[in-house]
Predict the structure.
Amino acid sequence: MKIFESKFKASMKTSAPLLDKITQYIVKRKGKQIRPMFVFLSAHVTGEINEKTYRAGILIELLHTATLVHDDVVDDSNERRGFFSLNAIWKNKIAVLVGDFLLSKGLLLSTENGDYKMLEIVTNAVRLMSEGELLQIEKARRLDIVEEVYFEIIKRKTASLIASCCACGAASNGSSNEVVELMKEFGEKIGIAFQIKDDLFDYENSHLIGKPTGIDIKEQKMTLPLIYALANTDTSTKRSIIRIVKNNNNDPQKVAQVIDFVNKSGGIEYATAKMMDYKNNALDMLKQFPDSVYKTSLIDLVNFTVERQH
């Protein structure tokens, strides 16, 4: 990871002073870097890592960072990982252009080195992420998301990128198409579990996770705990809760009422059980690979995605 960090920093080098200043800011505020970890561990479990593996990690991180920068503009968000977002400091126009720059750097890195298979995997993930976001926006207007649609949204929005991490890790060392597809499916299951965990935070105690609860409700996002609770209550209560989400989502007392409803309706337990099913199914897929320190680390990383506190 230390070698990767220096290579990632070098990949964003530019002769434009303002752009260089902004990319340095991006490097300093990096997150948990779970995605490049999935790339390296997937490569190690299926074979050996090489320079192509580092390029896979950089490609993923460049495109992921580009989508986050654009997301902050779309969501009018002033904060990301406890730091000011790019659009909060440099305004929307510059933030969008920086996102475009990061996207182009990722594409160039792949084409210049002939990494076409990895480029295909990651570009497809970006397409799915965009489709998932648009599907969520479309459904959120009517608040009519059922469980099947919810899983389709998070499969595209979140799971597609983690799936591409694992697939690229395997593809980087010359693994067969069958192994690449297997790791892609493995990553997709982990990605779904990862997103369910994120959605659960919204209904848990804020002092335990270090962030305010009820954010999804305020943004009118229908997540699994709420979807389950609404599907298993009477019509009158359902209408009342949907009315709050639609019209009173900025009232702390009303939001607390929705959180309490979800907790008492078994929504937390149901979503947690679903999350564990996806995690366990993913871990079962690793059984066909020989035991190693890398496989153990990958299992630990999978467990971290569902046990993390933030």
